[in-house]
Amino acid sequence: MTLTNVTLVGMGPRGLSVLERILEHAQRVPPDARLHIDVIDTGECGQGSHPSRQPDHLLINTVASQISMFAPISVAGGGSCGPSLVEWAAASGYRRFGQRFLRVEDSSGAAITEFDHLPRSLLGEYLAWMYDRVVSLLPERITVVHHRTRVVDIEPRGERFQIRLDNGYLYPTDFVFLLTGHGRRKPTIDDLQASGFVTGHVRRNPKLGYFASPYPVTGLSSIPAQATVAVQGFGLTSHDVISELTLGRGGRYIETSEGLRYRPSGKEPKILLFSRNCLPFAARGVNQKGLTGKHRARFFTPDAIRTLADGARQARSDPRIDFRAHVLPLIVKEMAYAYRSAALQQTVDPSTFDATPEENAAIESILWPLKGRRFESADAYRAFFDAQFKHDLEHAFKGNLSSPVKAATDVLRDTRDALRTAVESGGLTPDSHRYFVEEFNAITNRVAFGPPKQRNVEFLALRSAGLLDLAGGPGASVTGDPQRAQFRIDTPYVDGVSQCFADVLIAARLDSYSPLTDDSPLTDTLLGRGLIRPYRNGDYHPGGIDIDTQSRPLGRDGRPHPRMWAIGFVVEGPHFYTHALPRPQIASRQTADAERCVLQLFDAVNAADRTARTDPARSPISAGDLQETV
């Protein structure tokens, strides 16, 4: 009997999809062979960046009915689509009690609905349940062992690898999947300056502090209630910070006849928000499309992108297209089409559609609300911000079919396949790729991938309570003020520079992954060994490691290793939007990526088995025995 060893480095949602696909194709393991899988992850398997033990006030920004780890038809789902997150939560006894979701054995509380944004802790439970389910369904000839540690080195040994764990163990393996998920950056110049400022002035201001990352948010408990906290960022991470510094400290939201009000606990610090543009993230509109409904694209389609690439290839022997010149006009037209359809509440004939100047102006105001604007003062900008915020929230409550604004912004969610066709594998010219990653993708996240509308309602309640305010406007920057021993946020206006001061600075953003800046020892060793290289489109590095069309990492020499694959955030660069979880009843990109790699794995396992039967001396290494480093 031959034994093949597979190592999955990371067991978050991407690793879970690989394991689920192994179950799906388990019948491909030869009858006289065994497959042993070593899972390396410091946390609970399946959960990744969604630990079940995180505070339950941190919410998923997608409604629970649109999240599932099951393929439309699968062994794991019992031959069907399997339960979505909301179905699993209801079947597990979870019910709503005001702002909380608790597991009960009776019918107390209210039933969870398809419109609820559940806590991320419940998503972690769901992912862990899915992992246990998949492992329990694997046949006896496929075994799994979880090692709660980290991989620090992967050394090629002939056709195989030697894995080094940070607990001092070495073991051989035949195949490796890199599924490491979100990383964390090495300290930047800004990080070092902010940390150095705190070190140099904390004696004069004991409240002084800097957080290069807010995660885990429980670490923010060291911030004193008397502090003023500057949060750099308006996105989903900033909402987590706000939630932890308010709900996490015992505050509560109360429904009143005048709307939502915040009842403070007295332990909350004062919170100030700022960012480069200082624009609010748009709230998610009420979902009126059901589980699988999407905007049907008429102009911005994968076929349209492929036609543009063919034209570029014929014109200059280079299929790369310019995002601003070729792709962006299609996006704007598609958004204008959805805008008019929602405004008229009827399907518009695409063959005769041409956006009016008013419709184009509406789309431009959604995407670039600061274009051509200058603000006299901080008060003038605050009035503009408030008007933008309240206008967006009104449209969020109307829904993503009834509101022209939300129908238009939902186009950016529903046409991700067209965006992938344009962006992935060097599909854009390098300069326009830079614009897309560093400018337009941020716009997309702001207008289409914002928080649940509940969070923006809470935002208003916190401002009314005097606990939350803006620290600046467009062009805001932060520096340490040695005279005051505080951080100072400067914003230029027509009438001069406004200044706000804070004791604590929190960088509220998720790090993009680059092997050049990731702080993981494994990344450094893989680079040093030449097993991976940064992905580049010409002279531009958007992030991620380089891979071939089969998701195999390309080494320093440009050649792929035939027994290694990489999926997910680690390849966000050659691929696009790798962190989206699957939706029920829809064939997801995540599952498709896992499927492609797993099928290659089984092809190699079968080839090795045939070789072993004809040449026993080349039988795969038995990797079940761990060896302690001497």
Task: Provide a compact summary of the structure.
The chain has 630 residues and is an alpha/beta fold.
Protein architecture, described:
This protein has helices at 13-24, 85-91, 120-137, 189-201, 236-246, 302-316, 323-344, 357-367, 378-398, 404-414, 416-423, 430-448, 453-464, 521-529, 589-614, and strands at 2-9, 33-40, 94-97, 100-103, 142-147, 151-157, 160-165, 169-173, 175-178, 209-211, 228-232, 252-256, 259-263, 270-274, 468-470, 477-481, 486-493, 496-502, 504-507, 564-566, 627-628. The protein starts with a strand and ends with a strand. The protein is an alpha/beta fold and 630 residues long. It contains 15 helices and 21 strands. Residues 619-630 have low confidence and may be disordered. The strands form six sheets. The chain has a five-stranded parallel β-sheet with strand order 5-2-1-9-20, with helices on one face. It has a five-stranded parallel β-sheet with strand order 10-19-11-14-15, sandwiched between helices. It has three domains: 2-60 and 124-185 and 513-628, FAD/NAD(P)-binding domain (3-Layer(bba) Sandwich); 189-281 and 452-507, FAD/NAD(P)-binding domain; 302-448, no CATH class. A hairpin with a 4-residue loop joins β16 and β17.
